[in-house]
Amino acid sequence: MRLDLYQAETARIAAEQSALLAQAKAILKHGRALTPLEQSGVLHALQILIENAIGKAKQLLKASDQPVPVTGYDAFKALANREQIGPAELPAWNAIIGLRNRIVHDYMNIDMDQVMAWVAADKDQFIVQFLVKEFPG
Fold first, then answer.
1. Which end of the chain lies in a sparser environment, N or C, as judged by fewer CB atoms within 10 Å?
2. What is the pLDDT along the chain (137 residues), one digit of tens a residue?
3. What is the pTM assigned to this prediction?
4. How far is residue 41's CA from residue 34's CA, in Å, rounded to a whole number?
5. What residue ranges do the domains of the chain occupy?
6. What is the topology classification, in CATH, of domain 3-132?
7. Alpha-helix runs per DSSP H in the chain
C-alpha cells in the first residue's frame, strides 16, 4: 500500500477510536464510573490505537527502505534513531506498547483504575497525534 494511503487510513482509524475514548472521558468527567462493557470498549480502543501506531511505525521504516523490526519496541527505537520521533518520546512509547501487551496477553493483571485515570487525563493523545501526522515518504 502506498504510504500516503496508509497514513490516511491510520488517521481515519485514530479519529474513530479517539472519538470513542472521548465518550468515555465525558462519562468519567461527569462523575459516573464506566460499566464493565464500557471499560472493555476503552481497552479495545486503546489496543486498536496502539496496534495502529505500531503498524504505522513499521510502514514508515519500510517506506524508507529500512529493516522492519518484529517488535513495536524496536520499531519505535528505530524511528527515534532516525529522528522521526524524539528520543524523549521513547519511554512513553515503550510504556504504551507494554499496556497493549497486557491488554492482549496479561488481561488479568490490568489496573483499570490506572487505565481510567490515564484516559481521563488525555494521555492517549500522543498516540493520536502520531497517527494523524503526515510523514514524508
1. N
2. 799 999 999 999 999 999 999 999 999 999 999 999 999 999 999 999 999 999 999 999 999 999 999 999 999 999 999 999 999 999 999 999 999 999 999 989 899 999 999 999 999 999 999 999 999 87
3. 0.95
4. 10
5. 3-132
6. Four Helix Bundle (Hemerythrin (Met), subunit A) (1.20.120)
7. 3-29, 36-63, 72-81, 90-105, 112-120, 125-132
